[in-house]
């Protein structure tokens, strides 16, 4: 499952944590923290998750339909790996 969490910083700014969690183990298996929320953050987090876990064919990747999860970098990554 993928999601973006807003993290308040002590100086009043925000950081954004894009993370993918294995819903079976509850472990975060891929993540990226940036000062903005570009599509690149979820692409990096998903790439880290897929490379660390090497999932079997048929893996289901769930996220909301935010713009970061619908972009030209994210969707082709799902096609390259055997996920639904």
UniProtKB/TrEMBL annotation:
Superkingdom classification of source: Bacteria
InterPro entries for the chain: Integrase_cat-core, RNaseH-like_sf, RNaseH_sf, Transposase_IS3/IS150/IS904
Integrase catalytic domain mapped to chain residues: 1-84
Gene3D superfamilies xrefs: Ribonuclease H-like superfamily/Ribonuclease H (3.30.420.10)
Protein name: Integrase catalytic domain-containing protein
Any Pfam family matching the protein: rve
Highest classification ranks of the organism: Bacteria, Pseudomonadati, Bacteroidota, Cytophagia, Cytophagales
């Amino acid at each position: 499952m993928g999601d973006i969490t807003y993290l308040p910083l002590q100086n009043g700014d925000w950081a954004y944590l894009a993370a993918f969690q294995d819903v079976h183990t509850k472990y975060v298996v891929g993540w990226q923290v940036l000062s903005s929320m570009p599509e690149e953050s979820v692409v990096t987090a998903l790439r880290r998750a897929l490379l660390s876990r090497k999932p079997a064919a048929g893996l289901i990747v769930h996220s909301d339909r935010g713009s970061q999860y619908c972009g030209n970098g994210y969707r082709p990554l799902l096609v390259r790996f055997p996920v639904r």
